[in-house]
Design a protein that fits this description.
19% strand; 2 domains; five-stranded mixed barrel; 45% helix; single chain
Length: 149
């Protein structure tokens, strides 16, 4: 059975795409979705043709990046941007929104906050207590800069 699956690159790319689509549901950012599209385009190409692994990887990267650059903003606006839901603007998805402190931390310390169901590293110039609501002031890489609400 494993030999059959490994001899069918279209199945491998299809499964990779499916896994990437599922990961998009649990990870923030709306980026992984487009790599799933690239994997499924590659799967379709493998179903029709018999390309080598180098061409498969090239097509995967090419279509993933093209989909990301051309579709992300319009799909994000269509599915996520709403005037009724604050903070759903993809250009500034964090600033001004409220999060919940998961532990106590103070200036110069790294703490954790929960924002939209995900745990994030956080820092603050003020003392934050566990369970306190905080306002996100900015985001630096994977760390949120917060202040007490």
């Amino acid at each position: 059975m494993v030999d059959f699956i490994l001899s069918r690159p279209e199945l491998i790319w299809f499964v990779i795409g499916f896994i990437l689509f599922v990961l998009e549901l649990v990870m923030p950012g709306f980026v992984i979705f487009f790599f799933g599209i690239g994997a499924w385009v590659t799967s379709l190409m493998c179903l029709i043709f018999e390309p080598g692994i180098n061409l498969q990887v090239f097509v995967f990267i090419l279509f993933s990046v093209i989909a990301l650059v051309t579709l992300r903003k319009s799909l994000a606006k269509k599915f996520f941007a709403s005037k009724d839901v604050p903070g759903m603007d993809m250009d500034d998805d964090f600033t001004g929104n409220t999060a919940l402190a998961l532990n106590s931390f103070g200036p110069g310390e790294i703490g954790r906050v929960e924002y939209r169901g995900s745990s994030w590293q956080a820092s603050s110039s003020s003392a934050i207590k566990k369970g306190q609501e905080v306002v996100i002031k900015s985001k630096k890489n994977i760390k949120l800069i917060v202040e007490p609400k």
